[in-house]
Amino acid sequence: MSVLIFIDTTDGHVKKATLEALSYGSKIAAQMGTVAEGVVLGNVQDDLASLGKYGVTKIHQVTADALSQPDAQVYCKVLAEVATAIGATVIVFSNNLNGKAIAPRLSARLKAGLVSGAVALPDTSNGFVVKKNVFSGKAFANISVTTAVKIISLNPNAYQVIAGEGTATVAAFATSVSAGAIKVTSSSKASGDVPLTEAEVVVSAGRGMKGPENWGMVEDLAKVLHAATACSRPVADAHWRPHHEHVGQTGIAIAPNLYIAIGISGAIQHLAGVNRSKVIVVINKDPEAPFFKAADYGIVGDAFDIVPKFTAAVKKIKGIA
Amino acid sequence: MKILVCISKTPDTTAKIAFTDNNTKFDANGVQWIINPYDEWYSLVRAIELKETDPSTVIHLVTVAAADADPIIRKALALGGDEAIRVNADSHDSFYIASQIAEVAKQGGYDLVFTGKETIDYNGSSIGGMVAELLDLPYISLATKFEISANKATVTREIEGGEEVAEANLPLVVSCQKGMAEQRIPNMKGIMGARTKPLKVQEPVAVDPLTAVAGFELPPAKAGVKLVDAENVDELVRLLHEEAKAI
Ligand SMILES: Cc1cc2nc3c(=O)[nH]c(=O)nc-3n(C[C@H](O)[C@H](O)[C@H](O)COP(=O)(O)OP(=O)(O)OC[C@H]3O[C@@H](n4cnc5c(N)ncnc54)[C@H](O)[C@@H]3O)c2cc1C
Ligand SMILES: Nc1ncnc2c1ncn2[C@@H]1O[C@H](COP(=O)(O)O)[C@@H](O)[C@H]1O
């Protein structure tokens, strides 16, 4: 019996969402009176042993040529081997792109019930019940997992990173899986940007910005806040901003600590993707804009006037010249 | 080429979310049902486009649902599927649903299975991966572009902060999101034609679900917005820093 946490990496570095998953998985292990272990696929530049401070005692590292392609079919087979070898009863993923690709496969392979998009620790007082997000952030469901092995994929920003003391032992895990059928031929990343799903602060703007040429002030504010940028759907549809910035019911769902909505009306489909944000700030010239009903703080006024002042005020408070 | 497109029914995006029976059931009272937007706008329309390029393509639709999903599946047929299969079962367990779809896929021998990115009610984003595993096929998730040439698919998919292009031979399972295609409105000819297209109903295979919904909760209501004067942006930043501790 143990809790196994999938350590997700990008360009050889452990993702922030993984630190949340490690903290979360370790807490579950403590709750169940067992140990938490990690599994990482491929070579990593970061010091894996230091991940012990998030509560894992051991990390299984699998390096094999078959893992050179990001193929969920292959990853799933390897994870199934590790989980079975160590007798994992709970397996934790981050509910990010890799989690969404791999966790369902593993669930079907191991016949292990999956809760995707978990937002809280499991309630183990009577069975195993996990709270997850449903109806695009408009409600929660408590899902009872009835199988011996359980899989949870944790929503980003839903659980606090808890760092303590400790180092993990790192052990190589040998696999004989063969290469998969998927071959990646090219990839492109906007370098330097904060990925939207992992961002703690998101600055988002809508049609109120009038045109793509006015996004400079939005980006300036995002920069001083170390924030990711997002937008409403019509803005992405009009190609003012790239599609991957579109948040909402039919775009990306996010839950940052702070969401700043500029010139966005707050349609129900937009709110569906952002209403799990901890603090919502709305800047809109229309006092009747529905977004104010979902906001914690707001300013009624012209974005073109307020956003530059906002940036200046943040600089002042952060002591940036 | 034979394509299987998975279609699910969801409450309209503006539907009021409420629960009954001591918060164990979704309150469907007065709710308008729609085709899950990812299934309709992206996966189904992309399948139709592939058929427009290669008319020998056959598109089958599958839904795992009770008879109340028939209007939804007819609408999907009106957009362009050739025939539909409804597996007569009402379940919210992803593994149960995926197992039914995998069974249909095995019987039909499809080259391609399309699902949507996720259902906008249960937000699992799980069915595609499960179907792929049950069929022992490769799976490309969250695709934004899909091209096919001979037997090889070239798929663009989202990665954290960017995108990548992956290739794989058919058969293949793909989950579709924004970028794949543009929303279409069914035309009169499609709507008339859909009435006579086959909608086969079949009984589910026996599968044990892996999860069950124990109950629902609504999020706590917001305390109400604190408005700051437009002349006093510094005060807003002070509140965010000192009170909300968000900056
Ligand atoms: C099935 C379905 C799914 C959808 N999915 C999504 C989704 O995922 N995400 C999404 O965002 N939308 C989605 N929509 C669209 C949604 O209904 C709204 O149309 C959209 O969110 C509106 O975008 P907006 O707020 O940018 O534009 P508008 O509604 O045009 O609002 C612009 C706002 O800017 C304000 N404004 C104008 N000028 C200024 C200024 N100078 N300073 C300050 N404020 C100003 C206005 O008062 C107004 O409130 C969906 C719709 C449907 C039907
Ligand atoms: N009951 C169902 N019948 C057919 N397809 C479904 C069903 N539920 C989900 N799907 C498909 O699986 C996708 C992902 O659903 P989910 O994993 O529930 O978020 C949806 O976009 C549909 O394409």
Kindly summarize this structure in a few lines.
Chain A has 321 residues and is α/β, with parallel strands linked by helices. Chain A has helices spanning 16-32, 72-86, 97-110, 216-224, 233-237, 268-274, 303-318, and strands at residues 2-7, 9-10, 13-14, 35-41, 58-62, 88-94, 113-118, 129-134, 139-145, 150-154, 169-172, 183-189, 201-205, 228-231, 258-262, 279-284, 297-300. Chain A has 2 domains: 2-172, 3-Layer(aba) Sandwich (Rossmann fold), CATH 3.40.50.620; 196-318, TPP-binding domain (Rossmann fold).
Topology:
The complex is a heterodimer of chains A (321) and B (247).
Chain A: E1 2-7, E2 9-10, E3 13-14, H1 16-32, E4 35-41, E5 58-62, H2 72-86, E6 88-94, H3 97-110, E7 113-118, E8 129-134, E9 139-145, E10 150-154, E11 169-172, E12 183-189, E13 201-205, H4 216-224, E14 228-231, H5 233-237, E15 258-262, H6 268-274, E16 279-284, E17 297-300, H7 303-318
Parallel strand pairs in A: 1-4, 1-6, 4-5, 5-11, 6-10, 7-10, 13-14, 13-15, 15-16, 16-17
Antiparallel strand pairs in A: 2-3, 8-9
Helix pairs in contact in A: 2-3, 4-7
Chain B: E1 2-6, E2 9-11, E3 19-20, E4 25-26, E5 33-35, H1 37-53, E6 58-64, H2 70-79, E7 83-87, H3 94-108, E8 112-116, H4 127-135, E9 139-149, E10 152-159, E11 162-169, E12 172-176, H5 188-194, E13 199-202, E14 211-217, E15 226-227, H6 233-243
Parallel strand pairs in B: 1-6, 1-8, 6-7, 7-13, 8-12, 9-12
Antiparallel strand pairs in B: 2-5, 3-4, 9-10, 10-11
The structure holds flavin-adenine dinucleotide (FAD) and adenosine monophosphate (AMP).
Report on this model:
The complex is a heterodimer of chains A (321) and B (247). Chain A has 321 residues and is an alpha/beta fold. Chain A contains seven helices and 17 strands. In chain A, the strands form four sheets. A seven-stranded parallel β-sheet of chain A has the order 7-10-6-1-4-5-11, sandwiched between helices. In chain A, strand 13 (201-205), helix 4 and strand 14 (228-231) form a beta-alpha-beta unit. Chain B has 247 residues and is of the alpha/beta class. Chain B is built from six helices and 15 strands. In chain B, strands 11-10-9-12-8-1-6-7-13 form a nine-stranded mixed β-sheet, with helices on both faces. A two-stranded antiparallel ribbon of chain B has the order 2-5. Chain B is globular, with a radius of gyration of 21 Å. The model of chain B has no long low-confidence stretch (mean pLDDT 96). The chains are: A alpha/beta (321), B alpha/beta (247). At the A-B interface, helix 2, helix 3, strand 7, strand 8 and strand 9 of A face helix 1, helix 3, helix 4, strand 9 and strand 10 of B. Bound molecules: flavin-adenine dinucleotide and adenosine monophosphate (AMP). The site of flavin-adenine dinucleotide has 26 residues of chain A, from helix 5, helix 6, strand 16 and helix 7. The site of flavin-adenine dinucleotide (FAD) has 26 residues of chain A, from helix 5, helix 6, strand 16 and helix 7.
